[in-house]
Design goal:
The structure is a single chain. The chain is 60% helix and 2% strand. The protein has seven helices and two strands. The protein has a two-stranded antiparallel sheet with strand order 1-2. The longest helix has 30 residues. The protein is globular, with a radius of gyration of 16 Å.
């Protein structure tokens, strides 16, 4: 089952990477940094349609060798996922910003697109965390079930992001950082 899940995420990644993008990318991968602020790794501004690729560029790990991910990088991924989740639902997060702007206003719609991109980030990080746990033998018995559930949500949100391709996406000013 692990192989099929990796195949699914790599398939999502491949289809995302194969799509034309509106920005220039480089092949240079930087190491993950502790102490990153949400603003350093958020992907919610700009345009919709490429959220998974944007998330993976912010957290460059070797998806073909997840057993080699360092403990510190794994911890950063877990912490970033928690922060992305907080940015969605906690006070001052996307839900509050959308309520304040008005769901049907142009700002509210842009914030909703940004919220979907943030969900893709959160779910990609959660999926990475679970796949790293599996690859490193840290499986408490229900990791695969959790991973299958998160991958289903990720696929849904990636599709929603792609369906909104080209729409304006707005980030929030959320003050949180990784350890």
């Amino acid at each position: 089952m692990y192989f099929s899940t990796v195949t699914i995420i790599l398939g999502l990644v491949a289809s995302t990477l194969a799509a034309p993008t509106s920005h220039t990318t480089t092949n240079t991968k930087r190491a993950l940094q502790s102490g990153m602020k949400y603003a350093d790794f958020q992907i919610s501004d700009g345009k919709a349609g490429d959220a998974l690729n944007e998330a993976l560029q912010k957290f460059p790990i070797d998806m073909n060798n997840l057993a080699s991910v360092s403990d510190s990088d794994h911890e950063i991924i877990k912490n970033a996922r928690e922060i992305a989740e907080s940015a969605e639902a906690d006070e001052g997060g996307f839900n509050d910003a959308i309520d304040q702007a008005g769901e049907d206003s142009s700002e509210g719609e842009a914030l909703q697109v940004g919220k979907i991109k943030n969900k893709v980030l959160k779910l990609a990080l959660e999926s990475m965390d679970l796949m790293i746990k599996q690859a490193q033998g840290d499986d408490d018995g229900d990791v695969q079930e959790k991973l299958d559930k998160e991958m289903k949500k990720l696929k849904t949100n990636v599709q929603e992001d792609q369906d909104s391709k080209g729409k304006t996406s707005k980030a929030i000013d959320f003050d949180a950082g990784t350890a």
